[in-house]
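Dear Dr. H.,

I hope your travels went smoothly. While you were away I took the liberty of generating a structure for the chain from your last submission, since the lab meeting agenda had it listed for discussion. I wanted you to have the full record in hand beforehand rather than looking at slides cold. The sequence, exactly as received, is reproduced here:
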Amino acid sequence: MLSLTAPLAPYAAQTVLVGVSGGADSVALLLALQQAGARVVAAHLDHALRPDSAEDARWVQELCAGLGVPCEMARVDVGAVAARQGRNLEDAARRVRYEFLSRIARKAGASAILTAHTRRDQAETVLMGLLRGEAVLQGIPAVRGRVHRPWLGAARADIEAFLLAQQQAWREDPSNADPSYTRAWLRLEVMPVLTARFPGIETALARVACLSAEDDAALSGWAARLNPHTPLPTQPPAVLRRWVREQLQDAGISFHAEHLQDLAAALRESATLHLTLPGARQVTATGGRLYTAPQVWPAPDFPLPAGWTLRPRQPADRIRLPAGTRKLSDLLTDAKVPRESRDAVPVLVSAEGVQWVGVQLPVWAEGARAVAGAPEDPHHAAMGEALTLAHASAEAGEVPVGAVVLHGGVVVGRGRNTSREAGDMTRHAELAALREVAATLGTPYLTGCTLVVTLEPCPMCLGAALEARIGAIVYGAANPKAGALGGVTDLLAAHWGHTPTVLGGVRAAEAARLLRETFRQVRQNKTSPPRHERDPA
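The corresponding predicted structure, in token form, is as follows:
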């Protein structure tokens, strides 16, 4: 039977562990592996679910003795395990079985654990997933870790024919004839009806599993390339669902398919959704971000000036910023702080109002940092100089973008957009700053430097920064139209041999406001600077 032995050729001369229940599939796999030249170790787990299950164990033990195959046996009361863990019997049995097989495989030094799942098992699994509304109908994977399933493409009829040719008997598990089990019900009552109308349904469902697994791998790979700077609302729903799945799994949170769908939809719409997932785990999607745990807000790391008080926010709170006074509630909204987390954000107030807000990038009221005697954040200060350069570009009729380069906390390079003035669309602020610092330091490699720019770099400027081996990139406003640090073709997802650290959102409101005001003025004057890839209008 070439169709059964060919998939086993890679295991020749290897030590492999085979789970043997005594049923036709596992008995056939045991025999076929011996014929393929593998060094086989058998393992049988008595689930203690039937009064006669011990007879199956004795039968398997005698079979292995007759074949000269080492056999490891164990008995576990799966019913008790399921009750203790609050799982259904099928799920508990599967978990206990694979834990047992993994333990025996380590003991035997086996290179792989082989199970005898067939095309029928695959078809039933896909159908069960469809009926449950699962998000991905990829069925049983051919390989997962050390567990290999070489016969997923094999037909049950071929396996029985193989055993008959070997004059080898097998055991039938009575639970396979009990329709109270979902898989048995599908096998006994549903599949025969479907097969009568669609004779090739088993093959068709197995094909669905294969194609779905390939699609899921591609989309999951896409999702894995998303980073904290990627604008999630722009991602396709299929990618977002897989990204959410990965985030929840990494956080150790259980979920169902509808949770992935609901959270992905909230991220796409930048809506707010609070979900309580299994285990009373709270998950929130808001403002295009996902929060799988309560956020930790930074506390003041400086001595409090006299008259300053640390407290939660209050409804009437306002803060005086360089651009004017704002409601604290609006500032927290712009900072994408989830509504249920806002009362946890620390706020410092004085008789003049809010002086400091402990969001992830702490916000200071105008003049408050000097009063507190706190050292100025170098990124905040450098962005201020970049904004000054951006204003100069705006006054010259250019797209208002400015950039500086820091080395050891000191500005060593400056640049602003001069594309219109030079008649050259490559005269971007970042490139000018990088050229100046390379000349200043006398080296093209800027690993110890930080590029600070008012707008998220475009692909051209990011490419130049990567080529210069820039150590870090700090930007203000996001550039949804041509930003190179987010979106589908995220450049940093590719392997460039060098990946800088990236921090976005520094003084973002000021940078974004300058862009909006500049282009609003352009439209009012009915004149327009040459459109290029970074014009957000």
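Two observations you may find useful: The CA atoms of residues 225 and 254 lie 23 Å apart. The chain has 18 helices and 20 strands.

With kind regards,
E. W.
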